[in-house]
Amino acid sequence: MRDRAERLTKLFLQPSASMQRQVDDIAAASARYNIGGVNRNINLPVFALTVLEPQNRPWFSFKGARKSAAIFELEFHEERGGTLIRTAGDQSMPSHGRFTVDPVNGRVLSSELIAESGSLRARIEVTYALEPAMALFVPREMREKYSLSDGSTIEGKATYARFRRYQVTVAESVK
């Protein structure tokens, strides 16, 4: 724990030989404190939102329905073979789930992502809310559940608060 700030600074500020290596190093650092016997790096509160990114949308089918005046539910199902989520053995782990969306402004209010392989079922639910100090919707709570084929389960809950902007100030003087 003592080296946390130093490790994070190094990961983000010192370039590695390749971009993919740096991404892998950051994901490994993120997974360092996972509890339980499931090696995972998908338990990020914004991970499900990658389904909505333009480069990923063609790989999913979507179906939506208005649930009320304030709620629109958008279901998704992964259609591709080379899935977004892979097991440690590089096997496909197809995902599906849903987003609860504010139909007036398009804000995602919650997400549910379910990914399954032969031996594991992962379910990650996240709620998002307005952070007034930043005027942004941010994750507030994430619940994750991993069910293994041997009947064991791992469950976790994370809550998020005290969001703040990361700022860098640079001063330069020319002599």
Question: What do these coordinates show?
Answer:
This protein folds into two domains: 33 residues, no CATH class; 118 residues, no CATH class. The longest helix has 13 residues. It contains two helices and seven strands, in the order ααβββββββ. The termini are far apart. Helix 1 runs antiparallel to helix 2. It is globular. The protein has a seven-stranded antiparallel beta sheet with strand order 1-2-3-4-5-6-7, with no helix packed on it. It has 175 residues and is mainly beta.
Keywords:
single chain, 175 residues, mainly beta, 7-stranded antiparallel β-sheet, 2 helices, 13% helix, globular
Spans with pLDDT under 50 lasting ≥5 residues? Answer: none
Number of helices: 2
Strand order of the largest sheet: 1-2-3-4-5-6-7
Distance between the termini: 42 Å
Could you estimate the helical fraction of the residues in percent? Answer: 10-25%
Structure class: mainly beta
Q: What is the molecular shape?
A: globular
Mean of residue pLDDT values? 82
- The structural domain count equals 2
Report the sheet with the most strands, covering strand number, pairing sense and barrel closure.
7 strands, antiparallel
| Elements, N to C (H/E) | HHEEEEEEE
| Beta strands, count | 7
Query: What is the CA-based Rg, rounded?
Result: 19 Å
Q: What percentage of the residues does DSSP assign to strands (E)?
A: 35-45%
